[in-house]
Design goal:
- The complex is a heterodimer of chains A (183) and B (180).
- Chain A has 183 residues and is mainly alpha-helical.
- Chain A folds into two domains: 6-144, no CATH class; 145-183, no CATH class.
- Helix content of chain A is 74%, strand content 3%.
- Chain A has helices at 2-26, 49-56, 59-66, 71-108, 115-142, 146-164, 168-176, and strands at 37-38, 44-46.
- In chain A, strands 1-2 form a two-stranded antiparallel sheet.
- In chain A, strand 1 (37-38) and strand 2 (44-46) form a beta hairpin.
- In chain A, helix 1 packs across helix 2, helix 4 packs antiparallel against helix 5 (115-142) and helix 6 (146-164) runs antiparallel to helix 7.
- Residues 20-35 and 177-183 of chain A have low confidence and may be disordered.
- Chain B is mostly helical and 180 residues long.
- Chain B has one domain.
- Chain B contains eight helices and no strands.
- The two termini of chain B are 38 Å apart.
- Classes of the chains: A mainly alpha (183), B mainly alpha (180).
- The interface between A and B is large, with 37 and 39 residues.
């Protein structure tokens, strides 16, 4: 049970940090071209990974579809976002492997390799690979908004548990901390 | 009715050019070509989505190189090709960064400007997916996936709205008489 919880928490943290980094720099709506990768003419060439993640997992889009109250649209939205989210995670994972491969090749020719720094880097690499695998698992199983959905479900369970408790103090305590429910 | 955001390439788009460092004359020509393209053509197009389609149509299918006879005659083939490509990528990037609602507004404006029957255009686009050719060459693969996915969703939203509006039309209005 505990490794499972740690796994979900780690995946949640990754997505949260990605979204936070996009939000911190850009606000709710992404800016024009100022923060983007640029080609040799200075035109926007691509969105940065955090911006892209923000767009893919955007709760705003989900809300927009939800407001249509069309089950057909909601189903299509989930399918489409799941596909794009999986593409993004797999690609990130592949790029990570490529970067590490290049780094390994470069390190072989290096005269002064710092073993501690290399070990730390490898640890971070493995952590990211693990998170990517976790995200793939979560997205496949629960959809692109898996973490928000899981948090919401946990909140509902928590509330239900509070209501079913005979002890009034515990019920009040749960009611008082109703902010847990993520909707 | 929402109006699409005006996010056509800004004059600053060309200011960071690497080529300008090496050859100021080359950069000045490109900037002039860019301003010309912006003033005479892109500003006359009602939304970014229509600009994207227009710029994609400037690209030859076989070689994927951009052509614009009028601009090339004034500024040179190579400079114009680079300007068209840069503008195409910039507008694509803007569209990918739009929230889904914004893209729906863009496509809605495009449908209105096309003067086609919305139901026919939406059906054709859902069947044939011609918007795939509007993607710039060598664009980031995740951006392409997100763009295509968002267009599929936007088309479905527009279809849904169309069906809703047809369902809410008053039943008392008589059907049009066939021509005799």
């Amino acid at each position: 049970m505990m490794p499972g919880l740690a796994f979900v928490a780690a995946a949640a943290l990754l997505v949260f940090l990605l979204l936070l980094s996009a939000r911190d720099e850009n606000g709710d709506d992404l800016p024009a071209t100022s923060m983007r990768n640029r080609n040799r003419l200075g035109a926007a060439d691509a969105l940065r990974p955090a911006e892209l993640a923000f767009r893919i997992f955007s709760p705003k889009d989900r809300e927009f579809i939800r407001l249509t109250r069309s089950t057909r649209l909601e189903r299509l939205y989930r399918e489409e976002r799941r596909r794009v989210a999986l593409h993004w995670v797999r690609r990130t994972s592949r790029e990570l492997s490529t970067i590490m491969r290049h780094h390994r090749l470069n390190s072989r020719h290096s005269q002064n390799v710092n073993v501690a720094a290399e070990a730390k880097l490898f640890g971070q690499y493995m952590e990211l690979r693990f998170l990517c695998a976790g995200l793939v698992f979560l997205i496949r199983l629960f959809g692109p908004h898996a973490l928000a959905d899981l948090a919401s479900y946990a909140g509902e369970l928590y509330e239900r548990l509070g209501r079913s408790m005979p002890d009034a103090t515990a019920t009040n305590h749960v009611a008082a901390s109703g902010g847990v429910v993520a909707r | 009715m929402q109006q699409p955001q005006t996010t056509s390439p800004r004059p600053g788009v060309l200011l960071l050019g690497e080529s300008s460092m090496n050859d100021p004359a080359h950069f000045v020509t490109m900037r002039n070509a860019f301003e010309d393209l912006q003033r005479r053509t892109l500003s006359q197009i009602p939304c970014d989505f229509a600009r994207l389609v227009y710029l994609a149509s400037m690209r030859e299918y076989n070689s994927a190189t951009y052509h614009h006879e009028g601009l090339a005659a004034r500024y040179g083939q190579e400079q114009v090709r680079d300007v068209l490509e840069a503008c195409h990528r910039d507008i694509f990037c803007n569209l990918v960064s739009l929230p889904l609602e914004g893209l729906v507004t863009e496509i809605e404006a495009y449908v209105r400007a096309s003067h086609e029957a919305p139901s026919g255009l939406i059906h054709a686009w859902q069947e044939l997916e011609p918007y795939r050719v509007a993607v710039p060459m060598e664009a980031d693969s995740t951006m392409v996936q997100l763009f295509l996915s968002n267009i599929r969703l936007a088309l479905e939203v527009l279809r849904f709205r169309l069906e809703q509006s047809q369902a809410h039309q008053p039943a008392s209005s008589p059907p049009p008489l066939p021509d005799r």
